[in-house]
Protein 1
Amino acid sequence: MLTFAAASAVLVMIPGPDQALITRNALAAGRTAGLLTMLGGLLGLSVHVAAATLGISAVLLASATAFTVLKIVGAVYLVWMGIATLRSARQTLREDPDTATRDPAERGGRHLRNGFLSNALNPKVALFFVTFLPQFLPSRGSVLPKALLLSLVFAVIYVLWFSLYVLTVDHLGKWLRRPRVRARIEQVTGVLLIGFAVRLAFQSP
C-alpha cells in the first residue's frame, strides 16, 4: 500500500493537463475556481476507475482504433484550451493593473467541465488504471474491493496535492494576478497545453 501511495503521489505531482488547467482557472477566477477544476478532475478519475473495473479501459487500450479516437478527441480539446488560454493572455495584457480583477464571466460549471474533460479524455490515466494498478492486486480471490481501495488512495492523494497547490496559488494570488505576471503564466500554460496535446496525439497504447 505504501509503495502504491508513493508511486501515485509521484504520478499526481508530475505536471500535466490537470495542473495546467487548475493553475489557469485559479489565477483567472480564484480559489473556488481552482478547487472546482480539481473536483472535475476527480470526477474524471471516477470514470476511469469505473471503466477499468468494468474492463472497458482494457478493451479500449487493446483496440488501436478506439485508443486513437480517444487520444485525438483529448488532443483536440487540449489544443482548444491552449488557444483559449493564449487569447486570454493577450486580453490580460490590455487590463489596467489598478482595475484588474478575477474574471466574473468564469462560472463554476465551466471550471468543473474543464477539469472533468481534461482527465476523462486522457488515455494516460486509463493506461495507469489498467497497467499500473493491477500490479498491486491479489492474484487470487476477489480483486474488486482492493481495486476500489487503491483507487480511493489515488483519489485522496490527488485531492490533497491539488488542494495544497490551489491554496498556494491563491496565497500568492495578489502577485500572480498582476496583469503582466498573469499574462506570462497564461502564455506558458497555453503553450504547455498545446504541447501536452501534441505529445498525447503521438502516444502509443
Protein 2
Amino acid sequence: MNKEQTTCRKSGLWALSPLLLFLCLYLITSIILNDFYKIPITVAFMLSSCYAIAITKGGSLEHRVYQFSIGASNKNIMLMIWIFILAGAFAQTAKDMGSIDATVNLTLHILPNKLLIAGIFITSCFISLSIGTSVGTIVALTPVAIGLADKTGISLPFMVGVVVGGSFFGDNLSFISDTTIAATKTQECVMRDKFRVNSFIVVPAAMVVLGIYIFQGLSITASPIIQEIEWVKVLPYLIVLGTAIAGVNVMLVLLIGIFSTGIIGLITGSFSVFSWFNAMGNGIIGMGELIIVTLLAGGMLEMIRINGGIDYIISVLTKHIKNKRGAEFSIAALVSIANLCTANNTIAILTTGSIAKDIAVKFHLDRRKTASILDTFSCLIQGIIPYGAQILIAVGLAKISPISIIGNLYYPFIMGIFAIMAILLRYPRKYS
C-alpha cells in the first residue's frame, strides 16, 4: 500500500470515527453493563456530535457548527420532526380521550387472544403496504400495541417490535414507498418488475415470521378482561387508518386525528377544551428527547459526509469486485453502510444508486434485482439501527429504550437472511 492509499484510508476511518464513538458509547457500553439506561441516547449523540465538529478540518469553530446545523436542519429531518410533534399530540389526546382503550377493547373482542400477535403483525404489514410508509404505520399502531401489551401481559418491547417489523414489509414492497421510487428510478426499471423480484424474497420471510407469531401466540393462556366497547371513541383511529390507507399525507392524517379526538372528547365529556390543549402540549413535550436525538444525528451524519466518510466506504467496497455474486454483495454492503451513516433508507439509496447502476452495467446484473437489493438492504438496516426514525418514534411513544426492541425485530432480521440467501443462491433465477 503506497503513502497516498494509506493517507486516504486513515482519513476515511477518521471521518467515520464519530459514528464508531456513538456505537461504543451507547450500544457496546450498554451491552457490557447489561443496562440500556446507563447512558442516555441524547448524551451519546451529544458527545459524538461535539467530537464530529472537533475533528472536522478547515474553517472556524463557528463555521463548523454552521455546517453541523445545516445537516440537522435538513428538509427530511425537519419534516420528520413535524411528524413527531403531531404524532405526540395525537397519541396523548387519543389516550386522554379514551380512544386507545376503546380500540384495544375492540381488537381483543375481534381477535382470539391466541392470534393477537399474528393479527397485529398482519395489520402492520397491510397498512404499511397500503400507505407506503413505515413511520405512518408505527404512529397509527404503536399506541394500540402498547394497550394490548398492558391488557394481556405480553412484553411491551415485543409488541412494539411486532409493529415496527411489520411496518417495513410495506416500506420495502409498496408501490408508493419512497424507497421503492428511489430504487427503481436510480436503476431505471419499472416498479411492477421490482415488485415481482422483491416479493419472491420478502413474502416468504413474512410468512416465516407470521408462523413464529402464531406459534408464540399459542402460549398465551390468560384471557384479558374485555370492558364495554365505547364505539364512538374508536372513531379517531378508524379515521386515521382510513385516511392513511387512502393516501392522505401523514401530517394531514395526524391533524385530522387530533381534531377528531378533540371533537369526540368534547361531545362525550371526556375532557374540556383546555384539557384537550394540555393533552396536546404534554404529547409534544413527550417527544422532546426524540426530536433532540434526530437533530443531533442529522448534524453528526452530515459532518461524516463532509469529511468524506461515505465516499471512502464507496471506494473501498467497489475496489475488488470479481463476479456477479460479488457485485450484488457489494451493492448490498454499499447501501447498508450508507444507511448506517445517514439513518435514512431513502437517502442511502439515492447516495449509492448511481454507483449500483454502474456496477450492474459492468457485471451485467439485472436492474430489477439491483433495485430490489438496494431497497431490501436499506430497509433491513433502517429497521434495526437504534437511532433510525422508525425505532425512535416507536420507543418514544412506548417510553422504552431503543435497544430493548432490537432483539424483538423478527421481520427485518429474517428478511435480511432471505435477502442474503437470494444473492448466494442466485435467486430468483429469472432475475439473476
Protein 3
Amino acid sequence: MALEQVMLTPCKSEQELLEHFGCYGFEKQSDFYQTIGDNDWQIDINQGVIHFGNNITFSIQLLGSFSLSSETWLWSWNNDTSQLPSSVIEQALSLKQYGEQNGIDLFTVGQFAATQEDLYKIGVIAAGMLNTDGYYLADFGEGIVLVTVKKALIDVKNNTQSGLFKILPKFIGGLFNSSSSQGNDISYGDQQKQNQTDIFANFSEFISNFDVNHYRALKYYLIAKDYRIDTDDLNTHSQLTASKGEQKIVAEFDEHSRITSLNG
C-alpha cells in the first residue's frame, strides 16, 4: 500500500516525520473526534471496521497495541499470537518498509518501551503519512489498540466537543490573526477566511502539544494543504509566505524558528 507523501525528501528520523506529517494528521484527528462525539466503540477485526454508536462506521487498519501493564508498544506486524488478518495490517507493513528504507527505528523495532503519549505521536504521523481520516485509541482495559480510520465522507460534526488534548495557551493564541479582507463574493470570502482560521487554530494546537520546529512544521502542513511556498523564504527560515489561489498566509519566526506571528 503506497504512502501518501507530502515531503520534499524522505524523512530520516521520528522528529522529521512529526514535522512533515504531524500537523496534517492533527487536523484530520480534530475533524474525526468531532464526528464520533462521545459514542461507544466496537471493533470487528475480521471485517476490518469500527462502529461508533448505532450509525457511524469506519474501515480500520490496525497499527499496533500498547500494554498498560508492561508499558510497551507492539506493532501489529510483530503480533504473532493474535493471528491478525493480513488485510488489517497493510498500513503497519507499509510503515515498516518505509522505516527500513530510511533507518527509522520507530517503524522497524517490533516491540519497545513506550508511554501513552507515544501513541498520539504515532497516530498523527500515520494519519498524515497515510492520508487517513484520523486514528483511534481503543482502550480495552488491559491495553490500548491504535487503529487508523477511513471513511469516504465525514459529514457529521458534533461541535460541542472540546477538541483534542488541551486548551490552547493564551500566549500562543494571541499570535494568530486573520485579516478581514472583503471581496465581491461574500460567501466565498467568508469560506476562505474560515479555512485560514481553521489552519491557524490547528497549527497553534499542534505546536502546543508537540515539540517541533515551528518553521518546518508549518511549511509541510501548508504543502499538504496545497499551498505554494515562496522559495525566497526557504533559506532564511525567518519568514514563510504561502499562497493558494487568492489566499495568502505570512508567518514570521525568531532566530530559533519559533513562530512570532501568523497572518492571512
Protein 4
Amino acid sequence: MPDTMMPDTLLKGTETTDWVALADQIGRDIAAAAARHDAEDGFVTEGFQALRAAGFLKALVPAELGGGGAEYRVICDAIRRLGTHCGATALAFSMQCHLVAVPAWRWRHEQAPVEALLRRIAAEDLVLISSGGSDWLPSSGQAVRVEGGYRITARKRFASGCPMGDLLMTSAILDDPEKGPTVLHFGVPFRAEGLRVLDTWHALGMRGTGSHDVTLEEVFVPEAAIAARREPGKWHILFHHIFAMAFPLVYSAYVGVAEGARDKALTLVRAKGDRAASAVLAGRLENAFAKAEMALDRMIRIAETEAPGPARTGRTATARTLTGQAAIETVERAMELVGGAAFYRDLGLERAFRDVQGARFHPLQEMPQLELTGRLALGLPIDG
C-alpha cells in the first residue's frame, strides 16, 4: 500500500490553455529542424524558443505565483506529444519541468520556502538545468567553505538543455569537520564566473538535447543559496520527491518517440497493397505500445495520488523500467513491421531507434532498480 494516499486533486491545475494541442503544433513546426539538429549535433534552439514563447517554461508554476497553473498529467501528455515530433526537444524540456514540478508541489503541500524561485521562473521564463543524472545520490564535486559561502569545483555531465540554460541546479560535497561529508544543493547562474559549458555531447541519440558537460572552477555560491543538505549516497526525502515526479515527465518523452515510430510504421504499411501479411507484426507492435502506455500511466498515477516515501519510489522505479523497456520494444517492432526501408535515415525510424535507447540510462537503471524493488519486497532498508 502507498505510504499515504493523496486526493486525486493533488496535482490538478487551474489552466485553460490546451497545452497538448499547443505542444502538437510546436512539434509540427520544429520537425524539420529536429532532423537537422540530429544530423549536426546541434541544440534544438527552435523548439525551446517556441516553448518559451508559448508559456511552457512556466506552465507548472502555480497560477497564484504568476505561472500557467498547468496540471501535471497534462504536461506529461504535452511532452509525449512533443516527443512524437522531436524526442530531443521533449526530453530536454522534461528536465525543465521536473525542476519546476517538485518545488511547486512542495510550495503547495509543504509550505516550503521556494516561492521566490517559482516567481522568478514565472517572471523571467528561466530555463533550469539539472545535473541530477550524473550526480544522483552520491553527488560529485568539491565544496570548500569560504567567507560568506562556498567555492565549488566540479564537472557535471548530461546537463540537458544547457546551451540555453539560466540556472544550473546542482550539488557538491562539503567535507564538514563536524558532520563529515555533506552534500550541498544549490543553483548557479550560467553567467557565474568560473562556469563553462564544454562541447562534449556527441552521442548515439537524443543529439539535439545539448546535454554537454558543465565545469565549475571555484565558483562562489553564497550561504543563502544552499537549498538543502544531506548525507551522500543515502536516500533523502528530497530524492523521494524528485524520483516520483521527475520520471513520469522524462519517460513521457520516450513514449512519445515510440508513439511517433508506431504511427509512422502503421501509416506506411497501410499504404501497401498486401496488409494481411503484416497483421501479426502489427499486433506485436500494438502490444508493445500498450505496455508502454500502461506503465507510463501507472507512473503518472503514482505521482498524482501517493505521498513521497520509499514505497512510492519503489513503485515508480519499477514502472520506469517497464516503461523504458516497452518504449524500446515499440520502436523495434515498428522497424520490423516496415522492414528494410526502416534502415534508411530519411524515413525517421532510424533516429527514433537511436533516441529511444536513452531510456536505458536514466536512474535508476534496471539492476539498481531490481535491487531497490527487491529490498522493499523483502522488508530490508533501502540504503543497503
